[in-house]
Write a structure and sequence with these properties.
Layout (H helix, E strand, L loop, with lengths): L2 H19 L2 H8 L3 H14 L20 H14 L3 H12 L5 H10 L28 E11 L5 E11 L5 E6 L4 H14 L6 E4 L7 H9 L3 E4 L9 H13 L9 H17 L11 H8 L1
Parallel strand pairs: 1-4, 4-5
Antiparallel strand pairs: 1-2, 2-3
Helix pairs in contact: 1-2, 5-6, 7-8
């Protein structure tokens, strides 16, 4: 006798016991079951006989309210590929697929598929600091360096340096990879930023790193840009560029397999374009940086 048959026989004994003694409450207490279950079994037995006592998987109360499979697939793809949170998944689906779904609905899908927690190391740590947002594009940009380590084909570590500039008002960014961490490269990068950004830069903020010292300072001032150093050991004062580096880790570098520098430069340029033109930003009310820029210009 299999488990299903044993379950049917048990229910028949309970129903028979209640009929024999004429007391449902005593029967339920004796067998340790709820009265609701007893009455459900008895009604099913009266309608369908023993077939009504077969244990079945519960059906959703309202199948029409279940999310369509193609939407579920898109939600899971965005989570697995880019490690996006529920709110950002909602923005992407609305913007690029014309799909409206709540963040609670996204979370239920993720939880149902065991993806409600990000893999270890992908959580974004919040920077707790008071932020002052500039309203005019170019009024202030934040500049910093992200240290990168890749594994070469021979197993040796390959060190590279991502120079990043972000506009405080619009979050428009410029990115460039260099193989050395020097003032010469910092100067080359700031020239790239000035040429790249479609607005005049009035002030640039950096930390006190060796690549942002005298030669860099003089060069920046010669370009008509005021150079400001943040307080030593206070990266939170350049909080927007710090947070943007965490976004790079989560949404770009975790998906990247290093092969050679040419490929790295090409993919970083694509990521820069995507970030500026297509990626909705929470601080910009779901607009992309260039949408915010058009509004403020």
């Amino acid at each position: 006798m299999n488990q299903s048959e044993r379950d049917i026989q048990r229910k028949l004994r309970i129903l028979g016991h209640a009929e024999q003694i004429g007391d449902v409450s005593k029967t339920c207490r004796y067998f340790g079951i709820g009265r609701a279950s007893f009455y459900r079994w008895r009604a099913a037995f009266q309608r369908q006989g023993e077939g009504g006592l077969v244990k079945r998987k519960p059906a959703p109360k309202n199948p029409a309210n279940r999310t369509a499979p193609e939407i579920v697939e898109k939600v899971l793809h965005l989570r697995r590929t880019y490690h996006l949170g529920p709110i950002r998944i909602v923005w992407y689906l609305a913007r690029y697929h014309n799909i409206n779904i709540s963040d609670a609905g996204v979370y239920r899908i993720l939880r149902r598929h065991g993806l409600n927690r990000l893999p270890r190391g992908t959580r974004v740590r919040k920077i707790h600091t008071q932020r002052y947002e500039q309203k005019v594009p170019g009024h202030q940009i934040q500049v910093d360096v992200k240290f990168l380590t890749f594994q070469g084909k021979d197993g040796k570590a390959i060190k590279r340096y991502q120079y990043t500039a972000i506009d405080d008002a619009t979050r428009v960014r410029a990115l460039k990879i260099y193989d050395r961490h020097t003032q010469a490269n910092a100067i080359a990068f700031i020239d790239y930023v000035i040429a790249r950004f479609p607005f005049r830069i009035r002030e640039g903020r950096t930390d006190n790193g060796h690549d942002f010292q005298a030669k860099f300072d003089w060069h920046v001032e010669d370009q008509g840009v005021r150079h400001v150093y943040i307080k030593p050991s206070s990266p939170q004062l350049n909080g927007k560029v710090e947070l943007s580096h965490r976004t790079d880790d989560q949404e770009f570098y975790q998906q990247l397999t290093y092969t050679r520098d040419v490929d790295l430069h090409q993919k970083l340029a694509e990521w820069e374009r995507f970030h500026n033109l297509s990626r909705p930003h929470g601080a910009l009310n779901e607009k992309t940086p260039y949408e915010a820029l058009r509004e403020r210009l």
